[in-house]
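Allow me, if you will, to draw on your knowledge of protein folds for a short while. A protein sequence and the structure tokens that stand for its backbone fold form the material at issue. I would ask you to consider whether the tokens describe a fold that such a sequence might reasonably adopt. Thank you for your consideration; the sequence and its tokens are set out here:
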Amino acid sequence: MSLRGSVRGPAGRQSGFARPRRPWWARLLRTVTGLIAVLVCLGLALFGILLAVTPSVGNARLIARQQDARHDAVYPGPSVPAKFSAALEATEDHRFNEEPGIDPIAVARAGLGQVDSDGDQGGATLYQQLAKMLYTPGRTGIGVEAEQVALAVKLKFSYSGAEILRLYSDVAYFGNGYYGLQAASCGYFGHRPDRLTWPQAALLAGLVQGPSADDPVTSPSRARAREVHVIGRLVDTGTLTPAQAEQALRATIAGLLAHGGHGCRR
């Protein structure tokens, strides 16, 4: 005769060896937790492979120099002025100084198709954008984007934030044949980047995503809308007060471009 399930304690309660079954939600939680752990491990393994197969970024300055030579642009360009870097970070990558080359929050948001509170969608950091400009220009696809992620992380841990901003400013295209911040500032405004005003800095920072579509010469209304967006982001990040933003937006696109020329490029 089996004793399992038949032995009773002093109080008459059954004292068999079978453990009580866990609630369904506890079993589900355990399963989900295990699945997440497996996915995280797989993700880390794949990312490790990406880091191993993608090229080194130690030649980033050399590639930037070669690109600028092809475009007859100044290399290295001048130091990036604070107004332009603030405008660029505010509108393109406001977590630039804290992220590890990629922005997990923005990536997750983009994966879910959600729009950020600033009205932008997507997860490409300035590091990823620079990786695209230097190492994968003209290439598209999921594999290329994965490569850009690995290269972005390498750029983050190979160069300082100031160096990244300078490389970015040296090779970015600002429309009208202007490659690099030096050429764009001289071409559009007739003076060097260190003299940029807030509306001018905002206009240039807004051009990097759509230099042809938002061209201030051929599409001043689109350029104005983009400038307003950047100024708004500067207010959101606490760089400008609403009063300062209002003052900056008093300048018209035509007024900003009134003194454009090429005299200061060299």
